[in-house]
Amino acid sequence: MPRQVFHDKSLTVFMAAFEPFGGRSCNTSADLLQALISSKMPPGIRLAESAILPVDFATAWQILQPQVLKTKPDLVLLMGEKQGGSLTIESHARNLRRHGSATRKIAADKARFYTSKIVSEQLLAELPLATRQLFMLSENAGDYLCNFVYFMMLSVEPAINALFLHVPARSPQQFRKGAADDVKAVCDLIFSVKRILSGAGNNSDTKAIDGSGTNGMPRENQRRLLMADKHLVACEQEHEMITVLKHFKKGSSKENVDKMQNACRSWKKDSGAKYKPKNRDNFYKYLQEKGVLGKLS
Asked: Membrane-spanning residues where (predicted)?
């Protein structure tokens, strides 16, 4: 990705969310947008403009596109609701939309899907560990209006950096309870985008998952561990720590696979009270103690 220069040292962001629909009085994506507007953006981040979009295929994109083109932001952050789960970063928009009980292409002359050029393992790696745990990555933004607007943004305006964030639907009372954490998480996410776009990201020395140095671990092995981390965030199941091995095996040397496999087996059997609870963070600490993170070659 070409490096961008921010002349005023600020990343300008256009944020959009959706209005309530289905007879509800609130939409959590709009609640989060309002909370972000009311909060103080971190240094280096400037909110250029925002919009609350109608839940309507005929008008949502027609409203969004001219506002984005007028503002010319460095980043367009789109937000919409989903049922349950975590804050979800969508990497793809599919050429597919719901039409009654069936689905059809959004545009016959477009590709099957478009990928955001700023969603990657590095984006997660740039986040503080505590924030990273609040997010999951997804490759399926659905087949409704969220996916539609994201698809139009990525396919029609490819020169503009765009990111879609699905927000778990909550009541106003539930949202207010966790609003501060959500606002901080989104601000951290935007700041990570800024680091990547400006070339200040940790490209030459990617850190291990728990924040420690990787002691010269080859870039490809770092990438595979981050891919594994992406899966672990998505599944959110303690007993699926062994999934790390499945991702790591692809293309790795037999020696490295054996190291990882032995570590996974011993973790499942006898990692001991020192690593309770058996969660993701303790798993990576265990891998480091076993030398898997620091000694892979």
From this structure: none
The answer to whether position 205 is within a domain reads no
Q: Of the candidates 50, 88, 68, 82, which has an alpha carbon nearest to the alpha carbon of residue 186?
A: 88
> What tens digit of pLDDT does each residue of 230-279 get?
444 443 343 444 445 554 555 556 676 677 667 766 766 665 666 666 66
Domain tally for the chain?
2
Q: Residues 6 or more apart from 133 whose CB is under 8 A from it?
A: 233, 280, 281
Q: Is residue 206 part of a domain?
A: no
Q: Is residue 240 part of a domain?
A: yes
pLDDT of the residue at 155: 95
100 and 246, same domain (yes or no): no
Query: Which residue has 């969004």 as its token pair?
Result: 64
Q: Note whether residue 6 is domain-resident.
A: no
**For position 84, what pLDDT does the model report?**
84
For residue 189, which amino acid is it? L
